[in-house]
Amino acid sequence: MTTKSKTKIVNAFLSLINQKSILDITNIDIINEADVSKGTFYHHFHSKNEIIRYSEEQIDQQIVHAFIKEYRRENKPELTPEVFVDIFSKTAIPIVYQNRDQIRILHGSDVNEIWRHYLEIHYFRIMRRVYPDDDTFHIRLFIKYVNLVVSLWISALIPMDEAEFQKRFKELLESKLLINKK
């Protein structure tokens, strides 16, 4: 029941954020839209920001888990930029595609800056561990570029299919501009 209630609240919030500004949405609006009690709402969330954070973390956990699982399955000895791009495109693109409606709403609403900030900070920490010798500017540029490419893809009225996007995504990320090829 807990997961079902949480899902109802998140879906209600996403529905509302798709209709109006986050500033105009109250917790009562979300409670009414989700058709849950105040107690149920406050048991799971205390604010709109908690709902946003929960949504972000759910998608992010799926991506990170899939990436680690694939990395271990392939038994790669070193996480080079090329290996990172290959595994990321295999694991993240399907998850983004499965969650495209939710991501499209987050990218297309005034929550967008909160969402992008979360992604940039979180993935910067990961990338910094993977590439400790790379400069901060390069890592931040790479993350912003990935976010922009995915955002453009997912926000299209009819996004290209997953397989075609994976191919183009890899080509874009493997360009000399983004990966230091020796």
Automatic annotation (TrEMBL):
| A Pfam cross-reference name | TetR_N
Keywords, A to Z? DNA-binding
For this UniProt entry, the molecular function terms from Gene Ontology, in alphabetical order, are: DNA binding
Specify the HTH tetR-type domain's residue ranges: 14-52
**Keyword check for Zinc:** no
Query: Which InterPro entries does its entry note?
Result: Homeodomain-like_sf (IPR009057), HTH-type_Tx_Regulator (IPR050624), HTH_TetR (IPR001647)
Q: What protein name applies here?
A: TetR/AcrR family transcriptional regulator
Q: Which organism is it from?
A: Nicoliella spurrieriana
- Organism taxonomic ancestry: Bacteria, Bacillati, Bacillota, Bacilli, Lactobacillales
